[in-house]
Specification:
This protein is an alpha/beta fold and 282 residues long. The chain has a single domain, classed as Metallo-dependent phosphatases (Purple Acid Phosphatase, chain A, domain 2), CATH 3.60.21.10. Helices cover 19% and strands 21% of the residues. The chain is built from 5 helices and 11 strands. Strands 4-5-6-7-9-8 form a 6-stranded mixed beta sheet, with helices on one face. A 5-stranded mixed beta sheet has the order 3-2-1-10-11, with no helix packed on it. Helix 5 links the parallel strand 6 and strand 7. The chain is globular, with a radius of gyration of 17 Å. It starts with 43 loop residues before the first strand and ends in a 13-residue tail after the last strand. Keywords: Signal. This is Metallophosphoesterase. InterPro entries: Calcineurin-like_PHP (IPR004843), Metallo-depent_PP-like (IPR029052), STPP_CPPED1 (IPR051918), TAT_signal (IPR006311). GO terms for molecular function: hydrolase activity. Pfam families: Metallophos.
């Protein structure tokens, strides 16, 4: 496994049980099968994938991107997905490839999808809107559940804090929602000096200040596929990577399910099955 930095194993939780999210499963079973608690159809079921790095030299980026579409469409056919979120680094320093990946791959998803820029997309609001029809910060509503998505990088690839005025206005708007999820490619907190993130104390104050904000979801660090915490056990989830030339040995994505009682279940899918996870022989 290649890496651009040392992995701090002690900060990654491989299996967790959360106070705010009562049941969390970090990985699907062998073969990517998963049995949810109860037989009732979830109120909402969605997938998050990130870090495709389409166009990165020396990588099979067409194969990786095609696999992502195949995996997620198969998941939808087997279990139903309400939507897919592609959380940053769609392309690798090639803004000209954003329309290509959209038309050639993302538009082939069987369900609605939403995107947000990462640092390698080098995009601003105007560019993102020209390709996807919405700016680099926006909200999505699904009944009593809402999503706040915001850019965390500038057009030079520099890590920046999200637009906190927008974050605050959105969280105020959604005060009456049962659940709010925040989607940020780069986490707004440094857990250690070795992290490749950015400290945004004002953002963290907002995330911790609204009880209905249940979690944030991040990409960016291809080695992370579990959960880290801030404040009073506030969870930040990661989803490994789809492409690029470094990270976990496998490629995968994260599933989130919200049941009829607004309990949230999430797990990581080892889509490439390389290597198998949580496989034991006694």
């Amino acid at each position: 496994m290649s890496s651009r930095r040392n992995f701090i194993a002690t900060t990654l939780t491989a299996a967790a049980s959360l106070t705010l999210l009562p049941s969390v499963n970090s990985f699907a079973n062998i073969g990517n099968t998963y049995r949810r608690n109860g037989d009732t159809k979830p109120k909402l079921r969605f997938a998050l994938a990130s870090d495709i790095h389409y166009g990165q030299p020396g990588t099979p980026f067409d194969e990786n991107t095609g696999n992502m579409v195949k995996w997620l469409n198969a998941d939808h056919a087997a279990n139903h997905l309400d939507m897919i979120i592609v959380n940053g680094d769609l392309v690798h320093d090639r803004t000209d490839l954003l329309p290509v990946i959209k038309s050639k791959y993302l538009d082939k998803f069987s369900v609605p999808y939403h995107t947000i820029p990462g640092n390698h997309d080098r995009a601003d609001a105007q560019l993102w809107k020209s390709v996807f029809g919405y700016e680099d910060r926006y909200t999505v509503e699904h009944g009593d559940i809402a999503f706040v998505l915001a850019n965390t990088a500038d057009t030079q690839g520099k890590y920046v804090c999200p637009d906190n005025t927008f974050i605050k206005a959105s969280l105020e708007k959604f005060r009456s929602k049962k659940i709010v999820f925040v989607i940020l490619h780069i986490p707004p907190v440094m857990w250690s000096k070795d992290d490749v993130f950015v400290d945004c104390p004002d953002t963290m104050e907002l995330l911790h200040g609204y009880p209905n904000v249940k979690a944030t979801f991040h990409g960016h660090d291809h080695l992370l596929d579990g959960v880290r915490y801030t404040g009073n056990k506030f969870p930040h989830f990661f989803d490994s990577h789809i492409g690029g030339n470094w990270g976990t040995d496998y490629k995968g994505y994260r599933i989130v399910e919200v049941d009829e009682n607004y309990q949230v279940y999430t797990y990581q899918v080892n889509a490439s099955q390389n290597p198998r996870l949580n496989s034991n022989k006694l």
